[in-house]
User: Fold this.
Amino acid sequence: MKIFCTLLRRELAAFFCSLTGYIIIAAVTLLSSYGFVVLLTSLGTSPFTATVTEMFYSTFFFWLILLLATPVITMRLFALEKASGTFETLMTTPVGDLQVVAAKFSAAIIFYVVTWLPMLACLFIVRHFTNQSGALDAGTVGGMYLGIFLTGGLFLSLGCFASAISPSQMVAAMVSFVLGVSLFSLGYLAKSIPVTAQWQTQVLSCFSLFDQMNDFARGVVDTRTVVFYVSATFFFLFLTLRVVESRRWK
Amino acid sequence: MGGLKFLFAVAGFFRLDWRQIFLRVRDAMIEVSNLTKRYAGCTAVDGISFTVARGEIVGLLGPNGAGKSTTMRILSTFMPASSGTVRVAGFDVFHESVEVRRRIGFMPENNPLYPEMRVREYLKFRARLKGLGWRRSRERVDTVMEQCGLTDVQRRIIGQLSKGYKQRVGLADALVHEPDLIILDEPTIGLDPNQIRSVRQLIKSLAGKHTVLISTHILPEAEMMCNRMLIMYDGKVLAADTPDNLQRLMAGSSHIVVEIAADANELREVWAQLPGVEQFDVSAADGEFQRCVLTPHDGYDLRPMIFLLAREHGWILRELTRSRHSLEDIYVQVTKPNEEEGE
Assistant:
Protein backbone atom coordinates (compact mmCIF):
# COMPACT_ATOMS: atom_id res chain seq x y z
CA MET A 1 0.00 0.00 0.00
CA LYS A 2 2.87 2.31 0.87
CA ILE A 3 4.50 1.58 -2.45
CA PHE A 4 1.18 2.06 -4.25
CA CYS A 5 0.80 5.52 -2.70
CA THR A 6 4.36 6.46 -3.62
CA LEU A 7 3.80 5.37 -7.22
CA LEU A 8 0.41 7.09 -7.39
CA ARG A 9 1.91 10.33 -6.14
CA ARG A 10 4.61 10.23 -8.78
CA GLU A 11 2.15 9.48 -11.56
CA LEU A 12 -0.14 12.31 -10.47
CA ALA A 13 2.84 14.65 -10.25
CA ALA A 14 3.78 13.66 -13.78
CA PHE A 15 0.31 14.73 -14.94
CA PHE A 16 0.00 17.92 -12.95
CA CYS A 17 3.59 19.16 -13.10
CA SER A 18 3.79 19.03 -16.86
CA LEU A 19 2.52 21.27 -19.58
CA THR A 20 0.82 18.37 -21.36
CA GLY A 21 -1.48 17.84 -18.40
CA TYR A 22 -2.75 21.39 -18.52
CA ILE A 23 -3.06 21.34 -22.28
CA ILE A 24 -5.32 18.31 -21.98
CA ILE A 25 -7.41 20.02 -19.30
CA ALA A 26 -7.66 23.18 -21.41
CA ALA A 27 -8.61 21.25 -24.55
CA VAL A 28 -11.29 19.25 -22.76
CA THR A 29 -12.69 22.39 -21.17
CA LEU A 30 -12.70 24.16 -24.51
CA LEU A 31 -14.52 21.32 -26.25
CA SER A 32 -17.06 20.79 -23.50
CA SER A 33 -17.76 24.51 -23.20
CA TYR A 34 -18.10 24.88 -26.94
CA GLY A 35 -20.52 21.98 -26.97
CA PHE A 36 -22.42 23.74 -24.26
CA VAL A 37 -22.60 27.00 -26.19
CA VAL A 38 -23.89 25.18 -29.28
CA LEU A 39 -26.46 23.46 -27.10
CA LEU A 40 -27.67 26.67 -25.50
CA THR A 41 -28.07 28.47 -28.82
CA SER A 42 -30.21 25.63 -30.14
CA LEU A 43 -32.20 25.65 -26.93
CA GLY A 44 -32.81 29.35 -27.25
CA THR A 45 -34.58 28.87 -30.57
CA SER A 46 -36.81 25.87 -29.85
CA PRO A 47 -38.49 24.48 -26.70
CA PHE A 48 -37.30 21.15 -25.29
CA THR A 49 -38.45 18.42 -22.96
CA ALA A 50 -35.26 16.58 -22.06
CA THR A 51 -32.88 17.58 -19.26
CA VAL A 52 -29.88 19.73 -20.02
CA THR A 53 -27.41 16.97 -19.28
CA GLU A 54 -29.19 14.61 -21.64
CA MET A 55 -29.14 17.19 -24.38
CA PHE A 56 -25.43 17.55 -23.88
CA TYR A 57 -24.79 13.89 -24.60
CA SER A 58 -26.80 13.90 -27.75
CA THR A 59 -24.17 16.20 -29.27
CA PHE A 60 -20.99 14.61 -30.52
CA PHE A 61 -18.75 16.72 -28.29
CA PHE A 62 -18.79 14.36 -25.35
CA TRP A 63 -17.72 11.42 -27.51
CA LEU A 64 -15.12 13.49 -29.26
CA ILE A 65 -13.59 14.34 -25.91
CA LEU A 66 -13.78 10.77 -24.69
CA LEU A 67 -12.24 9.28 -27.81
CA LEU A 68 -9.51 11.90 -28.13
CA ALA A 69 -8.57 12.69 -24.54
CA THR A 70 -8.24 9.16 -23.16
CA PRO A 71 -5.51 8.01 -25.58
CA VAL A 72 -3.57 11.19 -24.88
CA ILE A 73 -3.88 10.68 -21.12
CA THR A 74 -2.85 7.03 -21.16
CA MET A 75 -0.25 6.97 -23.94
CA ARG A 76 2.48 8.10 -21.54
CA LEU A 77 1.90 5.54 -18.80
CA PHE A 78 3.89 2.52 -19.93
CA ALA A 79 5.17 3.44 -23.38
CA LEU A 80 7.23 6.42 -22.23
CA GLU A 81 8.83 4.44 -19.41
CA LYS A 82 9.72 1.67 -21.79
CA ALA A 83 11.10 4.04 -24.42
CA SER A 84 13.24 5.99 -21.95
CA GLY A 85 14.39 2.91 -20.05
CA THR A 86 12.99 3.95 -16.68
CA PHE A 87 10.78 0.87 -16.82
CA GLU A 88 13.91 -1.13 -16.11
CA THR A 89 14.81 0.90 -13.04
CA LEU A 90 11.20 0.77 -11.88
CA MET A 91 10.79 -2.98 -12.25
CA THR A 92 14.10 -3.81 -10.55
CA THR A 93 12.88 -2.28 -7.29
CA PRO A 94 10.78 -4.49 -5.03
CA VAL A 95 7.45 -3.35 -6.48
CA GLY A 96 4.74 -5.73 -7.60
CA ASP A 97 3.42 -5.68 -11.16
CA LEU A 98 -0.10 -5.24 -9.81
CA GLN A 99 0.94 -2.20 -7.79
CA VAL A 100 2.43 -0.57 -10.86
CA VAL A 101 -0.63 -1.19 -13.04
CA ALA A 102 -3.05 -0.13 -10.32
CA ALA A 103 -1.13 3.06 -9.53
CA LYS A 104 -0.87 4.08 -13.17
CA PHE A 105 -4.54 3.44 -13.86
CA SER A 106 -5.66 5.22 -10.70
CA ALA A 107 -3.58 8.27 -11.55
CA ALA A 108 -5.05 8.32 -15.06
CA ILE A 109 -8.63 8.12 -13.84
CA ILE A 110 -8.11 10.78 -11.18
CA PHE A 111 -6.65 13.07 -13.80
CA TYR A 112 -9.51 12.25 -16.17
CA VAL A 113 -12.15 13.16 -13.59
CA VAL A 114 -10.31 16.41 -12.87
CA THR A 115 -10.43 17.35 -16.55
CA TRP A 116 -14.24 17.11 -16.38
CA LEU A 117 -14.65 19.30 -13.31
CA PRO A 118 -14.64 22.64 -15.18
CA MET A 119 -17.84 21.48 -16.88
CA LEU A 120 -19.64 21.83 -13.56
CA ALA A 121 -19.34 25.58 -14.05
CA CYS A 122 -21.41 25.34 -17.24
CA LEU A 123 -24.13 23.52 -15.34
CA PHE A 124 -24.15 26.16 -12.61
CA ILE A 125 -24.56 28.86 -15.23
CA VAL A 126 -27.67 27.10 -16.54
CA ARG A 127 -29.06 26.78 -13.07
CA HIS A 128 -28.45 30.43 -12.39
CA PHE A 129 -30.25 31.63 -15.49
CA THR A 130 -33.17 29.22 -15.71
CA ASN A 131 -34.58 29.80 -12.21
CA GLN A 132 -35.91 26.27 -12.43
CA SER A 133 -34.63 23.79 -9.90
CA GLY A 134 -36.04 20.97 -12.00
CA ALA A 135 -33.74 21.77 -14.87
CA LEU A 136 -30.78 20.44 -13.02
CA ASP A 137 -30.99 18.34 -9.86
CA ALA A 138 -28.27 16.58 -7.94
CA GLY A 139 -29.43 13.14 -9.17
CA THR A 140 -28.97 13.88 -12.86
CA VAL A 141 -25.63 15.56 -12.33
CA GLY A 142 -24.49 12.64 -10.13
CA GLY A 143 -25.69 10.15 -12.74
CA MET A 144 -23.91 12.04 -15.44
CA TYR A 145 -20.63 12.07 -13.55
CA LEU A 146 -21.01 8.38 -12.75
CA GLY A 147 -21.44 7.82 -16.48
CA ILE A 148 -18.37 9.92 -17.23
CA PHE A 149 -16.42 7.97 -14.63
CA LEU A 150 -17.46 4.54 -15.90
CA THR A 151 -17.02 5.20 -19.63
CA GLY A 152 -13.75 6.95 -18.83
CA GLY A 153 -12.59 3.96 -16.80
CA LEU A 154 -13.28 1.62 -19.69
CA PHE A 155 -11.50 3.79 -22.25
CA LEU A 156 -8.58 4.47 -19.91
CA SER A 157 -8.05 0.78 -19.20
CA LEU A 158 -8.11 0.25 -22.95
CA GLY A 159 -5.48 2.98 -23.21
CA CYS A 160 -3.38 1.38 -20.47
CA PHE A 161 -3.41 -1.88 -22.37
CA ALA A 162 -2.44 -0.13 -25.62
CA SER A 163 0.35 1.72 -23.83
CA ALA A 164 1.68 -1.49 -22.31
CA ILE A 165 1.91 -3.25 -25.66
CA SER A 166 3.35 -0.32 -27.61
CA PRO A 167 7.00 0.62 -27.89
CA SER A 168 6.41 4.38 -28.14
CA GLN A 169 3.90 6.98 -27.06
CA MET A 170 2.63 7.77 -30.54
CA VAL A 171 1.96 4.13 -31.31
CA ALA A 172 0.21 3.77 -27.95
CA ALA A 173 -2.05 6.75 -28.70
CA MET A 174 -2.93 5.40 -32.12
CA VAL A 175 -3.63 1.88 -30.91
CA SER A 176 -5.84 3.06 -28.09
CA PHE A 177 -7.67 5.46 -30.40
CA VAL A 178 -8.38 2.68 -32.88
CA LEU A 179 -9.50 0.32 -30.10
CA GLY A 180 -11.71 3.04 -28.62
CA VAL A 181 -13.35 3.90 -31.92
CA SER A 182 -13.99 0.22 -32.68
CA LEU A 183 -15.59 -0.28 -29.30
CA PHE A 184 -17.72 2.79 -29.82
CA SER A 185 -18.81 1.69 -33.29
CA LEU A 186 -19.86 -1.77 -32.07
CA GLY A 187 -23.04 -0.25 -30.68
CA TYR A 188 -24.01 1.05 -34.12
CA LEU A 189 -23.55 -2.38 -35.62
CA ALA A 190 -26.58 -3.52 -33.63
CA LYS A 191 -28.75 -1.06 -35.51
CA SER A 192 -27.49 -2.07 -38.92
CA ILE A 193 -27.95 -5.85 -38.71
CA PRO A 194 -31.41 -7.35 -39.45
CA VAL A 195 -33.78 -7.65 -36.51
CA THR A 196 -34.23 -11.38 -37.17
CA ALA A 197 -30.78 -12.08 -35.76
CA GLN A 198 -31.97 -12.25 -32.16
CA TRP A 199 -28.96 -12.96 -29.95
CA GLN A 200 -26.52 -11.02 -32.08
CA THR A 201 -28.58 -7.87 -31.57
CA GLN A 202 -28.70 -8.53 -27.86
CA VAL A 203 -24.95 -8.99 -27.56
CA LEU A 204 -24.19 -5.97 -29.64
CA SER A 205 -26.66 -3.78 -27.79
CA CYS A 206 -24.55 -4.35 -24.66
CA PHE A 207 -21.90 -2.36 -26.43
CA SER A 208 -24.11 0.54 -27.41
CA LEU A 209 -22.24 3.05 -25.32
CA PHE A 210 -24.24 5.90 -26.78
CA ASP A 211 -27.61 4.71 -25.47
CA GLN A 212 -26.14 3.74 -22.13
CA MET A 213 -24.64 7.17 -21.67
CA ASN A 214 -28.02 8.71 -22.49
CA ASP A 215 -29.50 6.74 -19.60
CA PHE A 216 -26.84 7.99 -17.23
CA ALA A 217 -27.46 11.54 -18.37
CA ARG A 218 -31.15 11.18 -17.61
CA GLY A 219 -30.16 10.08 -14.13
CA VAL A 220 -31.05 6.43 -14.75
CA VAL A 221 -28.41 4.08 -13.36
CA ASP A 222 -28.89 0.64 -14.83
CA THR A 223 -27.05 -2.08 -12.89
CA ARG A 224 -26.44 -4.13 -16.04
CA THR A 225 -24.61 -1.22 -17.61
CA VAL A 226 -22.57 -0.58 -14.46
CA VAL A 227 -21.60 -4.24 -14.30
CA PHE A 228 -20.69 -4.18 -18.00
CA TYR A 229 -18.43 -1.15 -17.63
CA VAL A 230 -16.74 -2.28 -14.43
CA SER A 231 -16.07 -5.79 -15.68
CA ALA A 232 -14.80 -4.58 -19.07
CA THR A 233 -12.49 -2.15 -17.27
CA PHE A 234 -11.14 -4.91 -15.07
CA PHE A 235 -10.75 -7.17 -18.07
CA PHE A 236 -8.50 -4.70 -19.86
CA LEU A 237 -6.57 -3.99 -16.66
CA PHE A 238 -6.03 -7.72 -16.27
CA LEU A 239 -4.70 -7.86 -19.83
CA THR A 240 -2.39 -4.95 -19.03
CA LEU A 241 -1.13 -6.77 -15.98
CA ARG A 242 -0.41 -9.85 -18.07
CA VAL A 243 1.50 -7.77 -20.59
CA VAL A 244 3.60 -6.24 -17.80
CA GLU A 245 4.22 -9.70 -16.37
CA SER A 246 5.05 -11.13 -19.77
CA ARG A 247 8.59 -9.76 -19.70
CA ARG A 248 9.30 -12.44 -17.10
CA TRP A 249 7.86 -15.29 -19.12
CA LYS A 250 10.39 -17.76 -20.34
CA MET B 1 19.49 -38.75 13.68
CA GLY B 2 16.52 -37.90 15.81
CA GLY B 3 18.25 -34.78 17.05
CA LEU B 4 18.80 -33.55 13.51
CA LYS B 5 15.17 -34.15 12.63
CA PHE B 6 14.15 -32.16 15.68
CA LEU B 7 16.43 -29.33 14.64
CA PHE B 8 14.88 -29.24 11.17
CA ALA B 9 11.43 -29.25 12.69
CA VAL B 10 12.33 -26.27 14.90
CA ALA B 11 13.85 -24.46 11.95
CA GLY B 12 10.76 -25.14 9.88
CA PHE B 13 8.56 -23.85 12.66
CA PHE B 14 10.42 -20.59 12.98
CA ARG B 15 10.79 -20.35 9.19
CA LEU B 16 14.54 -20.07 9.43
CA ASP B 17 16.11 -19.74 6.06
CA TRP B 18 18.72 -22.46 5.80
CA ARG B 19 20.12 -21.06 2.63
CA GLN B 20 20.88 -17.78 4.33
CA ILE B 21 22.61 -19.49 7.22
CA PHE B 22 24.53 -21.67 4.82
CA LEU B 23 25.56 -18.70 2.73
CA ARG B 24 26.95 -16.76 5.63
CA VAL B 25 29.52 -19.52 5.75
CA ARG B 26 30.17 -19.68 2.04
CA ASP B 27 30.01 -15.93 1.58
CA ALA B 28 29.06 -15.90 -2.08
CA MET B 29 27.08 -12.93 -3.28
CA ILE B 30 26.44 -13.97 -6.85
CA GLU B 31 26.40 -17.53 -8.11
CA VAL B 32 25.83 -17.97 -11.80
CA SER B 33 25.86 -21.42 -13.27
CA ASN B 34 25.38 -22.34 -16.91
CA LEU B 35 23.49 -19.16 -17.61
CA THR B 36 22.19 -18.99 -21.16
CA LYS B 37 20.02 -16.32 -22.72
CA ARG B 38 18.68 -16.73 -26.19
CA TYR B 39 16.85 -14.01 -28.06
CA ALA B 40 14.96 -14.84 -31.19
CA GLY B 41 17.64 -15.93 -33.60
CA CYS B 42 20.74 -15.30 -31.51
CA THR B 43 22.37 -16.39 -28.29
CA ALA B 44 23.39 -13.39 -26.21
CA VAL B 45 24.84 -15.30 -23.27
CA ASP B 46 26.13 -18.79 -23.81
CA GLY B 47 26.38 -21.03 -20.75
CA ILE B 48 28.49 -18.83 -18.48
CA SER B 49 29.32 -19.63 -14.85
CA PHE B 50 30.99 -17.50 -12.23
CA THR B 51 30.77 -16.57 -8.57
CA VAL B 52 31.35 -13.28 -6.85
CA ALA B 53 32.24 -13.18 -3.18
CA ARG B 54 30.85 -10.68 -0.70
CA GLY B 55 32.69 -7.35 -0.69
CA GLU B 56 34.42 -7.85 -4.03
CA ILE B 57 34.45 -5.32 -6.84
CA VAL B 58 34.21 -7.26 -10.04
CA GLY B 59 34.50 -5.85 -13.53
CA LEU B 60 32.65 -7.37 -16.42
CA LEU B 61 34.68 -6.55 -19.49
CA GLY B 62 34.00 -7.05 -23.11
CA PRO B 63 33.35 -5.37 -26.42
CA ASN B 64 29.89 -4.18 -27.35
CA GLY B 65 27.48 -7.06 -27.83
CA ALA B 66 29.47 -9.46 -25.65
CA GLY B 67 26.47 -10.10 -23.42
CA LYS B 68 27.41 -7.90 -20.46
CA SER B 69 24.18 -5.96 -20.31
CA THR B 70 22.10 -9.09 -20.79
CA THR B 71 23.89 -10.78 -17.90
CA MET B 72 23.28 -7.74 -15.74
CA ARG B 73 19.63 -7.56 -16.67
CA ILE B 74 19.17 -11.18 -15.69
CA LEU B 75 21.04 -10.60 -12.43
CA SER B 76 18.78 -7.65 -11.68
CA THR B 77 15.67 -9.84 -12.29
CA PHE B 78 14.50 -7.66 -15.16
CA MET B 79 14.43 -10.55 -17.60
CA PRO B 80 14.47 -14.31 -17.15
CA ALA B 81 17.27 -16.57 -18.28
CA SER B 82 16.61 -19.14 -21.00
CA SER B 83 18.38 -21.76 -18.92
CA GLY B 84 20.77 -22.04 -16.02
CA THR B 85 20.44 -20.70 -12.50
CA VAL B 86 21.41 -17.38 -11.01
CA ARG B 87 21.44 -16.76 -7.29
CA VAL B 88 21.96 -13.43 -5.61
CA ALA B 89 22.59 -13.55 -1.85
CA GLY B 90 21.29 -17.11 -1.97
CA PHE B 91 17.98 -16.24 -3.61
CA ASP B 92 17.02 -17.39 -7.05
CA VAL B 93 16.52 -14.42 -9.36
CA PHE B 94 13.54 -15.99 -11.06
CA HIS B 95 11.60 -17.64 -8.25
CA GLU B 96 12.45 -15.23 -5.44
CA SER B 97 12.78 -12.08 -7.46
CA VAL B 98 11.33 -9.72 -4.86
CA GLU B 99 13.86 -10.88 -2.25
CA VAL B 100 16.64 -10.35 -4.78
CA ARG B 101 15.34 -6.91 -5.74
CA ARG B 102 15.38 -5.84 -2.10
CA ARG B 103 19.09 -6.56 -2.01
CA ILE B 104 20.33 -5.00 -5.22
CA GLY B 105 20.89 -1.51 -6.49
CA PHE B 106 20.85 -1.49 -10.27
CA MET B 107 21.91 1.27 -12.60
CA PRO B 108 21.10 0.26 -16.18
CA GLU B 109 22.93 1.30 -19.30
CA ASN B 110 22.37 4.96 -20.27
CA ASN B 111 21.17 5.65 -16.74
CA PRO B 112 17.45 6.33 -17.32
CA LEU B 113 15.91 8.90 -14.97
CA TYR B 114 12.67 10.87 -14.82
CA PRO B 115 13.73 14.20 -16.35
CA GLU B 116 10.83 16.20 -14.91
CA MET B 117 11.62 15.44 -11.26
CA ARG B 118 13.96 17.28 -8.94
CA VAL B 119 17.05 15.49 -7.64
CA ARG B 120 15.96 15.24 -4.05
CA GLU B 121 12.39 14.39 -4.96
CA TYR B 122 13.58 11.61 -7.27
CA LEU B 123 15.91 10.05 -4.71
CA LYS B 124 13.21 10.25 -2.07
CA PHE B 125 10.75 8.57 -4.43
CA ARG B 126 13.22 5.80 -5.20
CA ALA B 127 14.03 5.29 -1.53
CA ARG B 128 10.33 4.94 -0.74
CA LEU B 129 9.86 2.49 -3.62
CA LYS B 130 12.66 0.39 -2.23
CA GLY B 131 10.75 0.08 1.01
CA LEU B 132 12.49 2.61 3.23
CA GLY B 133 10.36 4.36 5.82
CA TRP B 134 9.67 8.07 5.75
CA ARG B 135 12.31 9.11 8.27
CA ARG B 136 14.85 6.56 7.11
CA SER B 137 14.50 7.58 3.48
CA ARG B 138 15.14 11.20 4.39
CA GLU B 139 18.30 10.28 6.27
CA ARG B 140 19.56 8.02 3.51
CA VAL B 141 18.82 10.55 0.77
CA ASP B 142 20.86 13.16 2.65
CA THR B 143 23.70 10.70 3.12
CA VAL B 144 23.90 9.55 -0.48
CA MET B 145 23.57 13.08 -1.81
CA GLU B 146 26.59 14.03 0.23
CA GLN B 147 28.43 10.87 -0.80
CA CYS B 148 27.82 11.56 -4.48
CA GLY B 149 28.28 15.33 -4.31
CA LEU B 150 24.69 16.18 -5.14
CA THR B 151 23.85 18.40 -2.18
CA ASP B 152 24.36 21.58 -4.23
CA VAL B 153 21.95 20.53 -6.94
CA GLN B 154 19.27 18.87 -4.82
CA ARG B 155 16.60 21.39 -5.87
CA ARG B 156 17.46 21.29 -9.57
CA ILE B 157 15.35 19.49 -12.17
CA ILE B 158 17.10 16.35 -13.38
CA GLY B 159 16.46 17.10 -17.06
CA GLN B 160 18.53 20.29 -16.78
CA LEU B 161 21.56 18.69 -15.08
CA SER B 162 24.82 17.95 -16.85
CA LYS B 163 25.60 14.37 -17.80
CA GLY B 164 28.05 13.99 -14.93
CA TYR B 165 25.47 15.03 -12.38
CA LYS B 166 22.86 12.76 -13.94
CA GLN B 167 25.26 9.86 -13.66
CA ARG B 168 25.77 10.68 -10.00
CA VAL B 169 22.02 10.77 -9.48
CA GLY B 170 21.87 7.27 -10.95
CA LEU B 171 24.64 6.12 -8.64
CA ALA B 172 22.98 7.72 -5.62
CA ASP B 173 19.79 5.90 -6.56
CA ALA B 174 21.61 2.58 -6.69
CA LEU B 175 23.10 3.24 -3.24
CA VAL B 176 20.13 4.75 -1.48
CA HIS B 177 18.79 1.63 0.22
CA GLU B 178 22.23 0.29 1.20
CA PRO B 179 21.99 -2.80 -0.99
CA ASP B 180 24.26 -5.79 -0.58
CA LEU B 181 24.95 -5.89 -4.29
CA ILE B 182 25.36 -2.92 -6.58
CA ILE B 183 25.15 -3.56 -10.31
CA LEU B 184 26.38 -0.73 -12.52
CA ASP B 185 26.12 -1.02 -16.28
CA GLU B 186 28.78 1.25 -17.82
CA PRO B 187 28.81 3.83 -15.03
CA THR B 188 31.42 6.15 -16.56
CA ILE B 189 30.28 6.23 -20.17
CA GLY B 190 30.13 9.72 -21.66
CA LEU B 191 31.78 11.51 -18.74
CA ASP B 192 34.76 13.87 -18.89
CA PRO B 193 38.05 12.74 -17.28
CA ASN B 194 37.48 14.62 -14.03
CA GLN B 195 34.02 13.20 -13.61
CA ILE B 196 35.30 9.72 -14.42
CA ARG B 197 37.89 10.09 -11.69
CA SER B 198 35.35 11.13 -9.08
CA VAL B 199 32.98 8.31 -10.06
CA ARG B 200 35.83 5.81 -9.83
CA GLN B 201 36.80 7.05 -6.41
CA LEU B 202 33.24 6.75 -5.29
CA ILE B 203 33.01 3.17 -6.53
CA LYS B 204 36.32 2.26 -4.94
CA SER B 205 35.10 3.63 -1.63
CA LEU B 206 32.24 1.12 -1.73
CA ALA B 207 34.59 -1.86 -1.53
CA GLY B 208 34.17 -4.03 1.52
CA LYS B 209 30.77 -2.71 2.53
CA HIS B 210 29.05 -3.60 -0.71
CA THR B 211 29.64 -6.07 -3.48
CA VAL B 212 29.93 -4.25 -6.78
CA LEU B 213 29.57 -5.60 -10.29
CA ILE B 214 30.58 -3.12 -12.99
CA SER B 215 30.46 -3.55 -16.71
CA THR B 216 32.74 -1.55 -18.94
CA HIS B 217 34.67 -1.74 -22.14
CA ILE B 218 37.33 0.66 -20.94
CA LEU B 219 40.24 -1.38 -19.65
CA PRO B 220 42.23 1.04 -17.53
CA GLU B 221 39.05 1.70 -15.67
CA ALA B 222 38.57 -1.93 -14.75
CA GLU B 223 42.25 -2.16 -13.93
CA MET B 224 41.92 0.68 -11.46
CA MET B 225 38.67 -0.20 -9.77
CA CYS B 226 38.27 -3.94 -9.72
CA ASN B 227 39.60 -6.72 -7.55
CA ARG B 228 38.74 -9.19 -10.23
CA MET B 229 37.83 -9.10 -13.86
CA LEU B 230 35.71 -11.29 -16.06
CA ILE B 231 36.45 -10.90 -19.73
CA MET B 232 33.42 -11.69 -21.83
CA TYR B 233 33.30 -12.16 -25.53
CA ASP B 234 30.47 -13.38 -27.71
CA GLY B 235 28.41 -14.56 -24.74
CA LYS B 236 31.20 -16.49 -23.04
CA VAL B 237 33.54 -15.75 -20.16
CA LEU B 238 37.03 -16.11 -21.62
CA ALA B 239 39.15 -15.19 -18.62
CA ALA B 240 38.46 -14.49 -14.99
CA ASP B 241 41.21 -13.35 -12.64
CA THR B 242 42.69 -10.38 -10.82
CA PRO B 243 44.16 -7.69 -13.07
CA ASP B 244 47.68 -8.50 -11.76
CA ASN B 245 47.37 -12.19 -12.47
CA LEU B 246 46.07 -11.55 -15.94
CA GLN B 247 49.09 -9.36 -16.60
CA ARG B 248 51.47 -11.95 -15.22
CA LEU B 249 49.87 -14.53 -17.42
CA MET B 250 50.85 -12.46 -20.42
CA ALA B 251 54.25 -11.26 -19.14
CA GLY B 252 56.08 -13.99 -21.08
CA SER B 253 55.26 -12.31 -24.29
CA SER B 254 56.19 -8.74 -23.37
CA HIS B 255 58.68 -7.05 -25.66
CA ILE B 256 61.43 -4.44 -25.78
CA VAL B 257 61.58 -1.58 -28.22
CA VAL B 258 65.03 -0.22 -29.17
CA GLU B 259 65.89 2.57 -31.56
CA ILE B 260 69.52 2.61 -32.59
CA ALA B 261 71.49 4.42 -35.30
CA ALA B 262 73.33 1.49 -36.91
CA ASP B 263 73.40 -0.70 -39.97
CA ALA B 264 70.35 -2.93 -40.17
CA ASN B 265 72.24 -6.09 -41.12
CA GLU B 266 74.74 -5.60 -38.34
CA LEU B 267 71.93 -5.22 -35.89
CA ARG B 268 70.24 -8.41 -37.08
CA GLU B 269 73.46 -10.27 -36.56
CA VAL B 270 73.89 -8.93 -33.05
CA TRP B 271 70.34 -9.73 -32.02
CA ALA B 272 70.61 -13.26 -33.40
CA GLN B 273 73.67 -13.89 -31.23
CA LEU B 274 72.33 -12.25 -28.09
CA PRO B 275 71.21 -14.86 -25.54
CA GLY B 276 67.68 -14.48 -24.20
CA VAL B 277 66.21 -13.08 -27.41
CA GLU B 278 63.47 -15.26 -28.70
CA GLN B 279 62.35 -13.20 -31.63
CA PHE B 280 63.30 -9.90 -33.19
CA ASP B 281 62.21 -7.53 -35.86
CA VAL B 282 64.25 -4.70 -37.37
CA SER B 283 62.66 -1.96 -39.40
CA ALA B 284 63.86 1.41 -40.63
CA ALA B 285 62.87 4.43 -38.58
CA ASP B 286 63.46 8.05 -39.63
CA GLY B 287 67.03 9.09 -40.54
CA GLU B 288 69.70 6.52 -39.86
CA PHE B 289 67.82 5.01 -36.96
CA GLN B 290 66.53 1.45 -36.93
CA ARG B 291 63.58 0.40 -34.86
CA CYS B 292 64.01 -3.07 -33.30
CA VAL B 293 61.35 -4.98 -31.44
CA LEU B 294 62.78 -7.81 -29.35
CA THR B 295 60.85 -10.53 -27.63
CA PRO B 296 62.76 -11.96 -24.66
CA HIS B 297 62.46 -15.39 -23.07
CA ASP B 298 60.10 -15.53 -20.09
CA GLY B 299 60.12 -11.87 -19.17
CA TYR B 300 63.93 -11.78 -19.15
CA ASP B 301 65.18 -8.16 -18.91
CA LEU B 302 67.44 -7.45 -21.91
CA ARG B 303 67.84 -3.72 -21.37
CA PRO B 304 71.20 -3.59 -19.49
CA MET B 305 72.69 -5.89 -22.10
CA ILE B 306 71.50 -3.71 -24.95
CA PHE B 307 72.92 -0.61 -23.33
CA LEU B 308 76.31 -2.31 -22.94
CA LEU B 309 76.22 -3.45 -26.56
CA ALA B 310 75.44 0.04 -27.77
CA ARG B 311 78.31 1.49 -25.77
CA GLU B 312 80.68 -1.19 -27.05
CA HIS B 313 79.80 -0.53 -30.70
CA GLY B 314 79.54 3.21 -30.24
CA TRP B 315 75.89 3.28 -31.48
CA ILE B 316 73.62 6.14 -30.71
CA LEU B 317 70.77 4.82 -28.60
CA ARG B 318 67.63 6.90 -28.89
CA GLU B 319 65.02 4.73 -27.24
CA LEU B 320 65.03 1.73 -24.96
CA THR B 321 61.71 0.71 -23.47
CA ARG B 322 60.08 -2.40 -22.20
CA SER B 323 56.41 -2.44 -23.01
CA ARG B 324 54.62 -4.09 -20.15
CA HIS B 325 51.57 -5.84 -21.38
CA SER B 326 48.67 -3.66 -20.48
CA LEU B 327 45.30 -5.20 -20.03
CA GLU B 328 44.53 -3.84 -23.43
CA ASP B 329 46.84 -6.41 -24.99
CA ILE B 330 45.38 -9.15 -22.86
CA TYR B 331 41.97 -8.08 -23.93
CA VAL B 332 42.93 -8.08 -27.58
CA GLN B 333 44.70 -11.42 -27.22
CA VAL B 334 41.86 -13.05 -25.39
CA THR B 335 39.18 -11.81 -27.71
CA LYS B 336 41.06 -12.10 -31.01
CA PRO B 337 41.21 -15.87 -31.69
CA ASN B 338 37.47 -16.11 -31.47
CA GLU B 339 37.03 -13.26 -33.85
CA GLU B 340 39.10 -15.11 -36.43
CA GLU B 341 37.19 -18.29 -35.79
CA GLY B 342 34.00 -16.40 -36.39
CA GLU B 343 35.21 -15.24 -39.78
Q: What stands out?
A: DSSP finds 13 helices and 14 strands in chain B. Chain B touches chain A through 30 residues (CB under 8 Å). Confidence is low (pLDDT under 50) at residues 339-343 of chain B.
